[in-house]
């Protein structure tokens, strides 16, 4: 049974989400501010967190920042605001997805399942590696069995979505992917207003794999078309 932590200062929302997730077979832990959430993380192995942005004490943004210092566990941000700036802020500080209040509980459940599928596929559920699927592009190397990324021998820590985007591009080095193609491939849903979501994750990847993200060596933008990994050498499996 997978453990999901729901953190919101509104106890009615926590209870409502808990009912739906429990009905889907998940084990739900409850917290009502960021401090509670971090304490639970120290004691419990969590598979996903749902965090409200606006909470007293330690809000969802600062809680996410604290979690990302040590863990790549999927995080879904809940926000009462619908402005793009708030969504981008959540993604900027390491959240994997966001949903705006008021929300359809069935949509939230679907997003939870989607994030857990990606997390499991990344091997973060202690799956056993059976071989070496290694993709390299110059000094950039991805081992898709161990889910490790390194640049010039230095390990790079990516979130599940960042990893999947980078893997897609590296496996197809030289090919330009549009924003909609990236979104559809990674999120497995229709790309509607995907520009900001994809752009934020691309920027994070650049900051982690490039020496100078303003003059990228690997992850290039093709203006008006999309993004690609610049071929540095043979990409192999």
Q: Calculate the terminal CA-CA distance, rounded to whole Å.
A: 34 Å
Q: By helix and strand content, what is the structural category?
A: alpha/beta
* Strand arrangement in the largest pleated sheet: 2-1-3-4-5
How do the SSEs run, as a string of H and E?
A: EHEHEHEHEHEEEEHHHEE
Q: What kind of sheet is the major sheet? A: 5 strands, parallel
Residue-averaged pLDDT: 84
Strand content: 15-25%
Number of helices: 8
Summarize the amount of helix as a percent range. 25-40%
- Give the tally of β-strands: 11
Which ranges are low-confidence, i.e. pLDDT below 50, for 5 or more consecutive residues?
124-131, 233-237
Overall geometry: globular
Radius of gyration: 18 Å
Task: Give a topology summary.
Blueprint: E1 3-7, H1 11-23, E2 27-31, H2 34-43, E3 48-52, H3 60-68, E4 75-79, H4 84-92, E5 97-100, H5 105-121, E6 134-137, E7 140-143, E8 148-151, E9 154-156, H6 160-171, H7 179-187, H8 195-209, E10 219-222, E11 226-229
Parallel strand pairs: 1-2, 1-3, 3-4, 4-5
Antiparallel strand pairs: 6-7, 7-8, 8-9, 10-11
Helix pairs in contact: 1-5, 2-3, 4-8, 6-8, 7-8
Protein name: Stage 0 sporulation protein A homolog
GO biological process, one term: regulation of DNA-templated transcription
Pfam family, one: Trans_reg_C
């Amino acid at each position: 049974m997978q453990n999901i932590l729901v953190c919101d200062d509104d106890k009615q929302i926590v209870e409502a989400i808990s009912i739906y997730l429990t009905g889907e077979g998940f084990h739900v832990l409850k917290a009502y501010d960021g401090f509670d959430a971090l304490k639970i993380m120290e004691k419990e192995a969590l598979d996903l967190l749902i965090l409200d942005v606006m909470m007293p004490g330690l809000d969802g943004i600062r809680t996410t920042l604290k979690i990302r210092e040590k863990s790549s566990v999927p995080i879904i941000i809940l926000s009462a605001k619908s402005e793009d700036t708030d969504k981008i802020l959540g993604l900027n500080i390491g959240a994997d997805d966001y949903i705006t209040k008021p929300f359809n509980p069935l949509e939230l459940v679907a997003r939870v399942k989607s994030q857990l599928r990606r997390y499991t596929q990344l091997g973060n559920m202690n799956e056993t590696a059976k071989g070496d699927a290694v993709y390299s592009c110059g000094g950039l190397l991805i081992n898709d069995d161990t889910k490790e990324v390194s640049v010039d021998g230095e390990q790079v820590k990516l979130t599940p979505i960042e990893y999947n985007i980078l893997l897609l591009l590296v496996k197809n080095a030289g090919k330009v992917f549009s924003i909609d193609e990236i979104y559809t491939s990674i999120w497995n849903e229709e790309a509607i207003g995907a520009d900001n979501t994809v752009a934020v994750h691309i920027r994070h990847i650049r900051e982690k794999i490039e020496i100078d993200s303003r003059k990228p060596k690997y992850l290039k933008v093709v203006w008006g078309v999309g993004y690609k990994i610049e071929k540095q050498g043979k990409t192999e499996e």
